[in-house]
Write a structure and sequence with these properties.
The structure is a homodimer of 336-residue chains.
Chain A (H helix, E strand, L loop, with lengths): L3 H6 L1 E3 L2 H9 L3 E5 L8 H5 L8 E5 L11 H7 L3 E5 L15 E4 L1 E3 L5 H13 L4 E6 L4 H13 L3 E4 L10 H4 L7 E5 L4 H9 L4 E5 L4 E4 L1 H19 L4 E7 L7 H13 L3 E7 L4 H11 L3 E4 L4 H6 L7 E2 L1 H9 L9
Parallel strand pairs in A: 2-3, 2-4, 4-5, 7-8, 7-9, 9-10, 12-13, 12-14, 14-15
Antiparallel strand pairs in A: 1-6, 10-11
Function (chains A, B): Catalyzes the first step of diphthamide biosynthesis, i.e. the transfer of the 3-amino-3-carboxypropyl group from S-adenosyl-L-methionine (SAM) to the C2 position of the imidazole ring of the target histidine residue in translation elongation factor 2 (EF-2).
Family (chains A, B): Belongs to the DPH1/DPH2 family.
GO molecular function (chains A, B): 2-(3-amino-3-carboxypropyl)histidine synthase activity; 4 iron, 4 sulfur cluster binding; metal ion binding
C-alpha cells in the first residue's frame, strides 16, 4: 500500500515560492491541481498550516494550464491561487483578476536500466539516429536523464525544453526535418497522440511509469482516419454550425472565433455562437436539444472534439478541422 | 411530433423587457436557461435577430436562480445576460458584475376537467378543508386556475404567491397551523419532496403535465429515513469534515460557512474547506482522493446531498443536517 509520505516522495515540488508567500503574510490561500495531482495537496498544506492562514482546497478539475478556477478564488476573496502541476500559461487575453502562483511538480527519476536498454535497441532497430526528446514539465527530470543516456549512446539528440501541452506540439513538429523520429516521455497516450497528429515522423514513447517503450504512430493513424471521416461527415451534414466558445480564462480565444465566423459566413454557413464553461457530452446534448444544428466546432480546447466528444451523434470538429473543411486543405491541421 | 412553433405555444414568455433592450441599443447578448427550457432559446432569439445584435447561447446548466453563468457573460463582454425561467434571486452577497434580465416563463394552462375532479375528490376523501396551494413561477397561471376551482368548490384556500425554490419552502411550511394539507402544482418530485421534508402536514401534488394527482408524503418519509441514517453514519464516521463551499454567485454563503465552521470547531471537529464550482459525484471523488476526510457538508445547495450525492461512499450532509449532528436536534432541519 502506498502511504501519503511515499506519495510526496515520488515528486519534487518547488515549495520556495510558497514559503515566500508565507513570509509576505498571505492570509487566505486557494490550492488547486489537476485531479491526478490533487493528492499532493497534503504535501504542500504543511507550508501554511498552524500559521493562521486560511487554506481552501479546490475540487474543480484542471484540464490544463488554461483551466484554473479563477472564479473560485474571486468568490472566496483569497490573496493567492496556487496551482500545482503547470507552468504559467501565456495566452493572448489571459489576464486573471487574481494573483496566481504556479508550482511545478516534477516526477522523480525512477527509470530502470532495462527500459533504457529497450529504448536504445528499439531506436536502433528503426534506424533512428537523430531524435527529438520532449515531455511535459512533470517528466522534465526524467527526460534529462534519458537525453544524456541517448547522447552518450551515439544518438543525435534534439532536447525540447519547452514543455508539451495538449494543444501545443508545433515546437516539436518543427524539428521534423532534423530528426528521424520524436521521442516523447509520457504516461498514457494523450501527449504522444497530439504530437503524432501533426508530425510526419514516427513518434516513439517511453512511459516511465509503466516502464515500457512503444510507438504512437499506429494509434495516431487510427485517430487521424477518424478525424478525416468527421470532416467528411461535417461537409455533408449541412450549413448550420454551432461555434462553441469557452469562458475559462485560458480558453477564450476571440481572434480565433472571429476568424472562423468570418470564413464560415463567406462560405455560406449560418453561424450560431454557443458559450460554455465545462463542455462535455451532456452540455452538448443540452445545446443540441435547443438549437438542433448540423455541426459543432469547439474553439475552447482542441482536445475536446478528439478525446472527449468523438462519440457525439453529430460531427464535432476542432478549429483546424473546420478550416480544412472550409478551405479544402487536405493536410491535417492541428492544433488550433 | 412536436414542432418548434408548438413548443413556443406551450409557454407564455414575457418578451417586453427584451424588446426594451433592443430599443436601448444592446449590441451583445447572452441567452441562458435551465436545460429543460433551452429549447425556448428559439422562441426568443427572433427578438434580436436581423438587428445587428450579436447573440450567444449558453450551453451551461441553470440549476436554479442561484446558478447563472456570470463568468461566461464576463468573458464574452456582453451588455446583458438574459436568463429564462427564474425570477431575480435575492441573496445576501449576490452581486453579479453584469446586467442580468430575468424573463419569467409560464406554462400555459392546459388542465383537464377530469384532473380537477380527481383533485377535489382526493382532497375530500382525505378530509381536507383548508389547503395551501403553491408552485414555482412556471406553474403560476395553472396554479391560479386550480386555486379558483378549489375555492369555488368550498375549500379554504391559502394561495402562496411567492414561488417555490429548491431551497425555499419555509413560506409554505409556516402555514402548517392554518391548513389540513399543502397542494403543490408541479411536474416531478423535486419541489413536493422539498416541502414534504419540512412540513408536518400532508403534501398533495397535482402534476399538470402528466395529468395526475398524488401524495408526496410517502416518498418524503423514505427520503427522511435515509437522511436520518446519513446523520447517524456521519456521527460515527469521524471528526474530519470537508466543508464544501460553492463559488457560483448565488451559492456562496459566507455567513453559513463561518457559522458551521465555528460550531464544528467547538465540538472538536477538524474542518477542511473545499471550494467547488459544479459539485457532482466525480468532483467529490476527486477531492476525497486528495483529502480522504470522514464526512462532507455541502454549503452551496442543500439539494445536492439529498438528490445527487446520496449514493456517495461517505456521508454527505446538508448544513441543516450537520447542525442536527452538532447540536443533537432531532427535528429535521431543512433547508439551509
Amino acid at each position: 500500500m502506498l502511504f501519503m509520505e511515499d506519495l510526496c516522495n515520488l515528486y519534487d515540488i518547488e515549495l520556495d515560492a510558497l514559503y515566500r508567500l508565507v513570509e509576505k503574510g498571505v492570509k487566505r490561500v486557494l490550492l488547486h491541481a489537476p485531479d491526478g495531482f490533487k493528492p499532493l495537496y497534503k504535501c504542500v498544506a504543511g507550508v501554511f498550516e498552524g500559521r493562521g492562514i486560511e487554506l481552501f482546497f479546490s475540487s474543480s478539475p484542471g484540464y490544463g494550464a488554461c483551466d484554473v478556477p479563477v472564479e473560485e478564488a474571486e468568490a472566496l476573496g483569497v490573496d493567492v491561487l496556487i496551482h500545482l502541476g503547470h507552468l504559467e500559461y501565456f495566452h493572448h487575453g489571459f489576464k486573471p483578476g487574481v494573483s496566481i502562483v504556479y508550482v511545478p511538480v516534477y516526477a522523480r527519476p525512477m527509470i530502470s536500466e532495462g527500459v533504457l536498454g529497450e529504448l536504445t535497441s528499439y531506436l536502433r532497430s528503426q534506424g533512428v539516429i537523430g531524435v527529438s526528446i520532449s515531455s511535459t514539465i512533470v517528466e522534465e527530470k526524467i527526460r534529462r536523464i534519458i537525453a544524456e543516456h541517448l547522447s552518450s549512446n551515439g544518438f543525435r539528440i534534439h532536447e525540447v525544453h519547452n514543455p508539451l501541452l495538449g494543444c501545443l506540439y508545433t515546437h516539436v513538429a518543427s524539428l521534423d526535418n532534423k530528426v528521424d523520429a520524436h521521442l516523447v516521455i509520457a504516461g498514457g497516450i494523450f501527449h504522444p497522440l497530439g504530437l503524432a497528429l501533426v508530425s510526419r515522423k514516427p513518434v516513439v514513447v517511453l512511459d516511465p511509469y509503466r516502464g515500457r517503450v512503444w510507438s504512437a504512430s499506429e494509434e495516431a493513424q487510427k485517430t487521424l482516419r477518424k478525424r478525416l471521416l468527421k470532416i467528411y461527415e461535417a461537409r455533408i451534414s449541412g450549413v448550420r454550425v454551432g461555434l462553441i466558445i469557452g469562458s475559462r480564462l485560458g480558453q477564450y480565444r476571440s481572434w480565433l472565433i472571429e476568424k472562423l465566423e468570418r470564413e464560415a459566413l463567406e462560405k455560406g454557413y449560418r453561424v450560431y455562437k454557443v458559450s460554455s464553461t465545462y463542455l462535455n457530452i451532456e452540455r452538448l446534448i443540452a445545446i443540441d436539444n435547443a438549437l438542433n444544428l448540423d455541426i459543432y466546432v469547439v474553439t475552447s480546447c482542441p482536445r475536446l472534439p478528439i478525446d472527449d466528444l468523438d462519440d457525439f451523434y453529430k460531427p464535432v470538429l476542432t478549429p483546424g478541422e473546420f478550416l480544412m473543411l472550409l478551405t479544402g486543405l487536405e493536410k491535417y491541421v492541428y492544433p488550433w
